[in-house]
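Following up on my earlier thread - several people asked me to post the actual chain instead of describing it. Fair enough. Here it is, all 473 residues.
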Amino acid sequence: MPTLPARRPAAPFYKKYIGDRAFYKLALTVAVPVMLQNLITQFVNMLDNIMVGALGTEQMSGVSIVNQLVLIFNLALFGALSGIGIFTAQYYGKGDNDGIRYTMRYKLYVVIGLAITAIAVFLLFDEPLIRLFLHSAETGADGDLAATLEYGKTYLVMLLWGLVPFGVSQAFADTMRETGDTFTPMAAGFAAVGANCLFNYLLIFGKLFFPAMGVAGAALATVISRFLEAAILLVYAFTHKQKFPYLKKLLRGFKIPKELLKVTTRKGAPLLVNEILWSGGFSALGVAYSLHGLDVVAGYSIATTVTNLFSIAFMALGVSIGIIVGKLLGAEKHDEAYDTARKMIVFSFFVSVTVGLLMFAFGRYIPMLYTKTGDNAKALATYFIRVMGLFLPLHALSNASYFTLRSGGKTLITFLFDSVSLWLTSVPAAFLLFYVGHLSIYWVVPLIQCLELVKDVLGLYLVKKKVWIKTII
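Reply from S.P.:
Thanks for posting it. Predicted structure:
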């Protein structure tokens, strides 16, 4: 009787979700430089926030409101570049430098167009936009709304000078990351945030021979850092063309193949619209929260700054998913792409559990640094920080799902998953809880955070269905 071949033992169940040492080395090789750059950026943002907060509650609230508005431009830029970047990553997987060069040109056209549009909108509608966030609390201490408006307008006008260099630097930095160089954007980012921190101190408070400019000094410091970052990236890129072969002849023409322009626009437009609507939804949430008073604006600003600092780990892992999985899809390694995405989603979740607990435990000490901010605003900030720390893992899951779906070019699905869910759930809920439910902000914020579960369930379902697995170039 013939002997049957021995059956190979099934791999342990956990192997589907836990990678080996080589897997985590690859993931961290991509993620750590992004993480470090974001760490420095967010840490300096927190220092900026503290320095502006040292001027008073109105100054910090005005700057916070403007930053929420400018976030719409920043995320629109992110969405537009991300849509084009899907193709850059897959061209890189195929070793097609011509394709990368064309996507790079398209990025430069887009960032300049978006910057000009944003400048025009902010100059024409600065006061009406800022006023959306200015409401008096029915009870308790509150600030001067007129002063907050003037500080916000002063900060915004100065900040507009930095939009174009910021867009150009992001176009170059994203392309470098998508083609395997994460170190150069990180180094440029370090230099920029260092300059921002230094000039903030000098220009806000008038140290050395610099004038004390207050919130205008904070904006000017940001503009200086934007120009510095763009200069470093451009000089390095064009003096090391052998390292970036796609830059050869980049500026000698304006040509982008019609078919590439068509398909990139079709895939990228939903991401652009998504980021505009998502950031707009985030700002709408800020408006809903501001109905509870100006102290809530200040407290929410502090809490958001702290949350951004603690969120860098899972945000960087999300970027890594887009780069690593996009490259695998470009090389048509579909099974490996799915396996990698699944393990990275799990990795991102457990990292965020650890970080969220640290945020809950230690984040409450940061509001103590805001010496000129009112006690009510600091108490609110402490509460918001602790709530956001507990819900951080839910945001990590939705973020990882978003980048996985995006890596395969499913931009319409990511649009529905990200922005539409925000506008259909969180935004109306925040207004209803105030106008209909008459609930305190202490109930509103955790209830809104719970709605992230809707995105998690939908995102993980779509990832498991493999609707995103596709080579698109």
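The chain has 17 helices and no strands. That should answer part of your original question.
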